[in-house]
Specification:
The complex is a heterodimer. By secondary structure, chain A is mostly helical. In chain A, 66% of the residues lie in helices and 1% in strands. Classes of the chains: A mainly alpha, B mainly alpha. Bound molecules: protoporphyrin IX containing FE (HEM).
Amino acid sequence: MTQPTTANAASRGFLTEGGKYPGLLGWIFSTDHKRIGLLYMYSVLAFFLVGVTLGVIIRLELIAPGETIVSAQTYNALFTVHGVIMIFLFIIPGFPAIFGNLFLPIHIGANDVAFPRLNLFSWWLYMAAAALILISLFTGGGPPDTGWTFYVPFSAQTTTNVPLAAFGAFVLGFSSILTGINFVTTVHRLRAPGVYWGRLTLFVWSLYATAWVQILATPMLAITLVLLILERLLGAGLFDPGSGGDPIMFQHLFWIYSHPAVYIMVLPAMGIVSDIIPVFARKPVFGYWAIAFSSIGIASAGSLVWGHHMFVSGMSDMAILVFSLLTFIVAIPSAVKVFNWVATLYKGSISLDPPMLFALTFIFLFSIGGLTGLILGSAATDVHVHDTNFVVGHFHYVMFGGTGFAFFGAMHYWFPKIYGRMYHKKVATLAWGIMFTGFNILYFSMMILGLRGMPRRYYDYLPEYTDLNRVATVGSWILVAGLLLMFVNLIRGARHGAEAGGNPWGGLTLEWTLPSPPPAENFATIPVVDHGPYDYDRVSPPHE
Amino acid sequence: MNDSGPPHPHQDDTGAKLGMWLFLYTEVLLFGGLFILYAVYLQRYPREFAAAAGELNLALGTANTVILLTGSLLVALSVSAIGRGNCGPAQGLLWGGAATGVLFLANKYIEWSAEIGHGIYPGSPALAQRPPGENVFFGLYYITLGLHGLHVLIGSILLAVMAVMTANGSIRRDRFVVLENSGLYWHLVDLVWIFIFPLYYLLL
Ligand code: HEM
């Protein structure tokens, strides 16, 4: 490798050079995939923090039965906006738009995505949509109070500002589709010589599968939201039983998108975990093709299971049976991945650096989330726990414990590459420990509460639920303390951390051949790749 | 037309077309949601659907089918004209294509004005008096055809832009993938109509 390990002091790679315009304009009008990735990162994280704040307020209200700090109506708005922000503004765009943009082109040896201007346009759409959603909170009848699922008939009747919020989500869908199209085309067209399909990183495989889900599922959400908006504006009655419509059809259309969307959230997380584990175990990944194809398997099987959200909404027993069976089938490719990761760890020389800790935490928390998912996926047990706090606990385990922690893992893994500096590793480990503890206290209590019968989306509860609710609220404080420590540590690291060098973790993928931060034009000459991304048995990592 | 100058170094026509096809999938699925609703409600209210469909203006619907098919033909011809370097004719064909879109919308305007004149529009009191199945039929009719009409409008604008770009030489023999993609979009609009027309106008 002839390139220097660290960009020279005056120029910090794409962070300082490249933009057509100076200063901030050079960022918000940049078509460089890395700059767009960072734009997404800062905006998505800002919304994440807003969502976290709302979540903490929700938990605070639940510290005692009865009205504690907010009214019932405010509570409804709180969990709705918390859900909308976390789903549509944080977790769906999170992985593809941030880390996909930052590293997908580099992983395949390309200098950018296939459609750089479209890419920038997606970010602008994201910001416009976010603005719409924020405006919807303060205009019309006030913040929506339907829950993030916008179910009719309530969403067609409530006086709150549902249409604008729904339109915001529609625009976000458009942004997500464009990212998906961009990534599929990029993977097909821009792979460098030697990067054939069997040499794609598993992160890229997972983004590829995700991109297909983004393309094929999101239009369903778009049309559903359009129908909801038109229902409010025109009153065609398509979902109104009084006028011949059927509210259950709304649920079908909604979940035909929103269940696959769950895989938009989790697949890339699985991808990064598959990339982190071999690096920190210093071993070739076990079962490359099994992991790659299980991504595709999850993406396709996952498109056929939406009905499991509707076991108690009114479906034929036959439909329930089929959806339940299909749901169990999706568990198989997920389990294939888990076993492959564990097999990769076996006899590896494992170093427990922060990214690895987060990746291992993903496996642990995701497994809890996945196994509790089976309780929800089998119709008989679902009837008992449907719409209880058990569901809330379950999906936080999957989305936050799974994807969220993998997201933090990706941040810690690529941080030195992006900023050229290293955060304080001990503090990062401490933050991880605090978050892990707080997380489990918070959501495990909520799952038990759900099993005992406490419904979700209520600001009040029976006195016998007080103790565990109190525990959960304390858990949320611990979790947030860990989050804050993590962010402070990262921000400090980006400013004052020690120079990280080109390849601090000893990775074999292409980004580690570049200096940190990478130059504006990734590769001066397009590389010719002669080994797989995990061939630790054959090649030694660059810059070591 | 300006044949000199090499194509742009980053030009990747295959990639651009791949992207366009992916986008067209999403459009198909967007309408697919409406077709799912149609299928479910048709199964629930077969008689009301047939009765309501009988009230649509079959002549105007047929005329619009012919108009859109002609438009597709013109656009396809313009693409092959550019491929042979005949920019002048291509430009005319594109204007023709855009005009078919405008004609289609004019027809639609006449058709809808008459129907709205009869008190048939989503949420109208007249519809509320009718059997629920007919209300659902007309609700879907307006939304589906409205969404399609929006696509026709966008398509016509696109074709007009293509005509201008052909005129000023940004579309030429060695560089017309943007025209091909706009053509694909126009064919999609056509294709969706080919499904809409029998489902709404020819239902017995
Ligand atoms: C410190 C962080 C968080 C806290 C304290 C928190 C807390 C909560 C609580 C207590 C609820 C249940 C409200 C109820 O049903 O009465 C809830 C709902 C929800 N949370 Fe979180 N949450 C956090 C982070 C997240 C994250 C990271 C995500 C997504 C990635 C997320 C997504 C959701 C969703 C989708 C709902 C459902 C909203 C609805 O019912 O419509 N949350 N959250």
